[in-house]
């Protein structure tokens, strides 16, 4: 089956609303924010048709106002995970056989619900629970998740339409089957869109999923489950479980029906999961698909020919939007000595104008980091930089967690290209700059390539085409998403498929057909219409 039989709705990118003062969307999202902020939310486990509330719960708090209680989410026990597996496998019997256009209709409806009646609710939940300003919430929890759902339907139709050649002797066709078993989706706190895409992409292809959201993203995860339910995702196709990640993962990875993992999170956790899958390999009915996007130590390098203001703006946005908590956020910067004085002046001017506080105040560009563990880690590295002779903090360096987990956007300048904050993933609003001698451009490219175990995103700024081409070539393995004269964040579904290699993941490119192909197993069917009736070949005469 393929596009030849059905017209697929165009997968256009969802327009971004401005939320400028006086716009109706600004007023609507603020009203929704106030309403959700004061609700006592009770998030259950979603297993099949049941909403399960256990005797054990954990509380939810806005990162920018951690004393405020948003409500609770319920924690699973081992028996609940075992039940989720059983329920998912039972649901698979009907879901896997459902015509692809019927599955498509469900997720196209989910996209329209998100971009329509659920838009402000999902945005407000993301602002509250993940401390995102309205623009960061809009491009994530409204636009990107809607884009994932719509483009994935288009990609699914392309996959099904990809068929082998036939001739006058036989008809050849490929059946793109869902995986035999269930898929485990583990999602991070930083993108509501990723939380929605990781379980829904395999489900679109006929699989069933058990979804473990981040403990720090439960507020918007609850809204996503409401959307999936209203869109008509059948009971048991996407099951949401919360609780101890180690216990949940161990139970799931011991199941013979474990067929794959769709993961975004830390590198070390992903490596541990991979090792457990290897240790359990004799248990499984099939070889599990392992798809993961993990950490990053993303870079910007400027050539002496670059425009200083373009570079400083790329740093301001690329390093500090959403408090540097994007997998793609710029965290190590390489600048030529000739441009450094101008870039430094522009950077200090930009960052000095940042306002920091609650996302409810839409004049704030910077909000809180996600939780106390992140805050304490960042504070430790900032304090160390204040002591080290190889480092100088030129702006920022302060932090306060009395009300919320607020860390000032901080710029460290180092004389050592291998200083600790040039190599260590911090995942926060801290960026480190190394200033190189102009004539050492090529040597610095080598440093960029060799400094980090990660290879997620990177950017080069250059007005010299030969220099841009040289950087593109020499940094081929340094970033799965490489940007020329742009910041290293902001990948758009259908335009910049996202993923990195090395310690940054399996590079299966979310937002493209490549990712969806991982969630199907092909069966070739050859049908011969007039079979042979004589074993002899002509050469035997």
Q: List the strand order in the largest sheet.
A: 14-17-18-13-12-20-21
Instruction: Name the beta content range.
Output: 15-25%
Q: Nearest-angstrom radius of gyration?
A: 25 Å
**How many angstroms does the end-to-end distance come to?**
43 Å
Shape: globular
Mean pLDDT: 97
**Total DSSP helices:** 16
Give the low-pLDDT segments.
none
Q: What's the total number of strands?
A: 23
Q: Pairing-aware structural class of the strands and helices?
A: alpha/beta
Please estimate the helix content: 25-40%
Main sheet record: 7 strands, mixed
Provide a descriptive summary of the structure in words.
The protein is an alpha/beta fold. The protein has helices spanning 24-37, 78-95, 100-115, 119-130, 134-161, 192-204, 218-231, 245-253, 267-279, 308-320, 340-352, 372-387, 420-423, 441-451, 465-474, 513-516; strands at residues 41-43, 45-47, 50-52, 57-60, 71-74, 170-178, 182-186, 209-212, 238-240, 258-264, 289-293, 298-302, 330-336, 391-395, 399-400, 406-407, 410-414, 430-436, 454-455, 457-461, 481-484, 501-502, 520-528. A 7-stranded mixed β-sheet has the order 14-17-18-13-12-20-21, sandwiched between helices. Strands 9-8-7-10-11 form a 5-stranded parallel β-sheet, with helices on both faces. It has a 3-stranded mixed β-sheet with strand order 1-5-4, with helices on one face. Helix 4 runs antiparallel to helix 7 (218-231) and helix 10 (308-320) packs across helix 11. The protein is globular, with a radius of gyration of 25 Å. The model has no long low-confidence stretch (mean pLDDT 97).
């Amino acid at each position: 089956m393929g596009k030849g039989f059905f017209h697929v709705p165009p997968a256009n990118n969802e327009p971004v609303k401005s939320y400028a003062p006086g716009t109706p969307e600004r007023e609507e999202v603020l009203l929704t924010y106030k309403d959700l902020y004061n609700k006592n939310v009770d998030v259950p486990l979603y297993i099949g048709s049941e909403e399960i509330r256990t005797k054990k719960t954990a509380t939810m708090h806005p990162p920018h106002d951690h004393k405020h209680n948003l409500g609770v989410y319920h924690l699973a026990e081992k028996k609940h995970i075992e039940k989720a597996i059983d329920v998912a496998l039972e649901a698979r019997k009907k879901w896997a056989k459902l015509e692809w256009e019927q599955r498509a209709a469900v997720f196209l409806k989910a996209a329209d619900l998100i971009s329509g009646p659920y838009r402000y609710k999902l945005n407000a939940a993301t602002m509250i629970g993940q401390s995102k300003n309205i623009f960061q919430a809009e491009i994530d929890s409204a636009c990107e998740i809607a884009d994932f759902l719509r483009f994935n339907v288009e990609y699914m139709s392309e996959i099904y339409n990809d068929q082998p050649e036939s001739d006058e002797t036989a008809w050849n066709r490929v059946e793109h089957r869902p995986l035999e078993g269930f898929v485990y989706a583990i999602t991070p706190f930083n993108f509501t869109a990723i939380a929605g895409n990781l379980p829904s992409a395999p489900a679109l292809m006929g699989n069933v999923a058990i979804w473990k959201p981040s403990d720090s993203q439960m507020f918007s995860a609850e809204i996503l489950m409401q959307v999936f339910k209203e869109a008509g995702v059948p009971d048991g196709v996407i099951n949401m479980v919360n609780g101890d990640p180690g216990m949940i993962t161990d139970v799931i990875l011991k199941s013979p029906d474990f067929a794959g993992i769709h993961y975004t999170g830390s590198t070390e956790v992903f490596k541990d999961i991979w090792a457990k899958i290897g240790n359990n390999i004799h248990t499984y009915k099939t070889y599990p698909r392992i798809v993961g996007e993990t950490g990053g130590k993303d870079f910007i390098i400027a050539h002496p020919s670059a425009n200083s203001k373009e570079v400083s703006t790329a740093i301001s946005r690329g390093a500090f939007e959403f408090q540097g908590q994007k997998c793609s956020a710029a965290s190590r910067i390489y600048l030529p000595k000739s441009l450094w004085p101008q870039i430094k002046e522009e950077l200090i001017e930009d960052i000095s104008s940042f306002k920091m506080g609650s996302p409810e105040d839409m004049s704030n560009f910077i909000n809180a980091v996600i939780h106390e563990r992140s805050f304490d880690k960042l504070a430790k590295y900032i304090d160390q930089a204040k002591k080290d002779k190889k480092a100088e903090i030129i702006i920022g360096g302060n932090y306060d967690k009395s009300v919320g987990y607020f860390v000032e956007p901080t710029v460290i300048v180092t004389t050592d290209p291998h200083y600790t904050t040039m190599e260590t993933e911090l995942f926060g609003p801290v960026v480190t700059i190394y200033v190189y001698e102009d004539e050492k451009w090529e040597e610095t490219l080598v440093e960029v390539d060799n400094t980090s175990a990660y290879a997620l995103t990177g950017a080069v700024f250059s007005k010299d085409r030969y220099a841009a081409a040289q950087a593109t070539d020499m940094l081929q393995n340094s970033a799965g998403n490489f940007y020329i004269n742009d910041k290293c964040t902001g990948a758009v579904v259908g335009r910049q498929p996202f993923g990195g290699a090395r310690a940054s993941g399996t590079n299966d490119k979310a937002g493209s057909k490549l990712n969806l192909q991982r969630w199907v197993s092909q069966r070739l069917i050859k049908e011969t219409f007039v079979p042979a009736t004589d074993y002899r070949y002509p050469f035997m005469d």
